[in-house]
Amino acid sequence: MEITDLQLDANGHLSDYKFWNLEVAKVLSENDGFELNKEHWQIINLVRDIYLETETTPPMRLLIKLMKKEFSEDIANSRYLYRLFPDGPVRLASKYAGLPKPKHCL
Predict the structure, then answer these.
(1) Alpha-carbon distance 102 to 10, whole Å?
(2) Dihedral sign from CA coordinates of 32, 35, 37, 39
(3) In-domain check, residue 64
């Protein structure tokens, strides 16, 4: 699968989150020059789970709060998220999770 095989919106996000799978995430991330590791997948899966429950992407503060509950206090902070996703943690995690661009992201 290549990036040209995907139906993307104007922001480079998957047009329909229902067509997402691991291969799609890898194609999207590789197109951005990213190689996803275990830490990335933790955040991507958390953001996707939240979206599937609430039909909205969590803002950064809520994501950090949920990370404290799901993972540990040690990694539940914006520095950790920006280290993983330097160009915007919530936006990139949403993108690689096959979700629309969050409304609260510029």
Answers:
(1) 13
(2) negative
(3) yes
Query: 31-83, pLDDT tens digit by residue?
Result: 999 999 999 999 999 999 999 999 999 999 999 999 999 998 899 999 999 99
pTM summary value: 0.90
Q: Which of the residues 8, 36, 60, 105 is marked catalytic?
A: 105
Instruction: In whole angstroms, give the CA distance from residue 88 to residue 23.
Output: 22
Q: What is the CATH number of the domain that holds 61?
A: 1.10.10.370
Q: Which residues contact 42 (CB under 8 A, 6 or more apart)?
A: 71
**Which residue type does 98 have?**
G
- Is 29 catalytic? The answer is no
State how far the Cα of 59 lies from the Cα of 40, in Å rounded to an integer: 17
Residue 103 lies in a domain: no
